[in-house]
Amino acid sequence: MTASSESTFDLIVLGTGSAGQSVATACREQGWSVAIIDSRPFGGTCSQRGCDPKRVLAGAAELIARSRNLKGKGLAGENAIDWADLMAFKTTFVENIPQSTEEKFEEAGIRYFHGSASFTGKNSIRVGEEELTGGKIVIATGAKPATLGIEGEDLLGNSEGFLDLKELPSTLAFIGGGYISFEFAHIAAEAGANVHIIHNNDKPLKNFEPDLVDALVQRMRELGIVFHLNAKTEKISRTESGEGYVLEGTENGQPFRLECGLAVHGAGRVPNVDELDLEKGGVEADKKGVTVDEHLRSVSNSDVYAAGDVSGSPGLPLTPIAGLEARAVSANLLEEGSVKPNYTATPSIVFTYPMLASVGMTEEQARKSGKEIKVNTVDMSGWYTYKRMGEKPSMAKVILDQSSGCILGAHVLNGEAEHLINYFAIAMRHGLTAAQLSDTLYGYPTDGSDLKYLLET
Ligand SMILES: Cc1cc2nc3c(=O)[nH]c(=O)nc-3n(C[C@H](O)[C@H](O)[C@H](O)COP(=O)(O)OP(=O)(O)OC[C@H]3O[C@@H](n4cnc5c(N)ncnc54)[C@H](O)[C@@H]3O)c2cc1C
Ligand SMILES: NC(=O)c1ccc[n+]([C@@H]2O[C@H](COP(=O)([O-])OP(=O)(O)OC[C@H]3O[C@@H](n4cnc5c(N)ncnc54)[C@H](O)[C@@H]3O)[C@@H](O)[C@H]2O)c1
């Protein structure tokens, strides 16, 4: 493809996050003329407002917790988080991203536009005063916090605001009991705040293994985090002084009222399509996002593809999936219909301490699958690897397929969960049996050298 003029491109990409950048770069490398548009400073969510800055804060919280585990076992003294210093450190990771992303586009010969993009026709996009035409268009506009329908909802902060807090309020409330609330509640609690999580049913972290979630909730309660389960927030208002907020609603059917310095939205994110004028582009979407076929092509406009959080694909809204889908879309643009993304064994991690990690089926899903399974549920807190670090709880559940010897699911709650889950993900994605994973030689003493005890058939 070679169409190129001031306003006509082989490809127009909407969004400069993990998905959009990847598609734009891959197609430009193959000689396509490419335009990319973003309404916010370039770089997307993960690097500026999500995974990366979050994990800088979570790292400090984790260290506090780890050192507490060894108190009286060789470590003395108190560690504490200096919020202002931590924020300043976090800023060093994010402050240059818009500029460096822009420079990357410049060097690659990708035309970039700042502004909100919307369709004006099947192959045309408006950004500001400009009207661009694209042979192909990729929608990679990510996700945004869901509207909750609570009175006074505009008083709610969100994950982005939390990541930029100059001062940590003494009391925080998180609405929703998912990834964002658990991770941020843990950070705030380790930094010394009083923290509440208000969740609308009795199953927080709904896609994770319930036994391990229960153990994590117990750990978080010990840290002082208060859980309000089966709770419905009906109204948010300012306190009389105007300095804080009042949440009112019901908890297990009884009225509750909570005053806090900040209430944060952690109640789910939805695909970012509202500003795109999709009807004008003939692009169908529903609440899961842009409706796509198995090649991530719009089912209603064959020149349009979607990747990342905005796509209505079966992939989870996580950064590795944005990358996977972007690679599939790039391949399909360059050679039509060539790649279907393979979502097998997507690992997912809640970055609390201990971390909760999961890949593949839960026990309940495996039982329903009709397969002949073996479930290894293991308390590892007495094992050398965890005992030496004073780690409690340390738990895992591994689900094996008795007939093939393969791993169907793995779930881990401890300080090494981020590593262990990746070993399981490798095995599951590439069809290694439990015996093969067990037979691998691992450095000793490490989390890997324990694996064989989780894989007994
Ligand atoms: C607080 C938080 C923590 C997270 N932590 C993790 C984690 O630890 N691990 C993990 O795997 N995932 C994590 N995620 C999820 C991860 O950030 C997303 O899955 C990933 O960033 C999605 O990438 P994307 O390219 O699809 O979208 P984004 O990176 O969101 O990019 C979309 C871009 O499109 C732009 N845009 C939107 N509408 C328009 C428009 N009309 N015109 C022009 N531009 C537009 C936006 O400004 C944005 O820059 C986290 C998310 C959040 C919010
Ligand atoms: N570590 C990670 O990988 C990570 C971290 C943060 C965010 N993310 C991504 O961001 C997405 C959004 O995260 P999230 O934590 O906002 O959502 P989530 O989907 O993880 O959890 C939201 C929870 O809020 C509950 N809820 C919904 N409305 C409510 C209400 N009005 N009151 C109380 N509870 C309510 C829901 O039952 C749900 O379980 C995630 O799905 C994930 O893909 C990933």
Automatic annotation (TrEMBL):
Pfam hit, one: Pyr_redox_dim
Co-factor requirement: FAD
UniProt superkingdom: Bacteria
Domain FAD/NAD(P)-binding: 9-319
Keyword field: FAD, Flavoprotein
SUPFAM superfamilies reported for this sequence: FAD/NAD(P)-binding domain, FAD/NAD-linked reductases, dimerisation (C-terminal) domain
Family membership: Belongs to the class-I pyridine nucleotide-disulfide oxidoreductase family.
Name the record gives this protein: NAD(P)/FAD-dependent oxidoreductase
Organism this protein belongs to: Saccharibacillus alkalitolerans
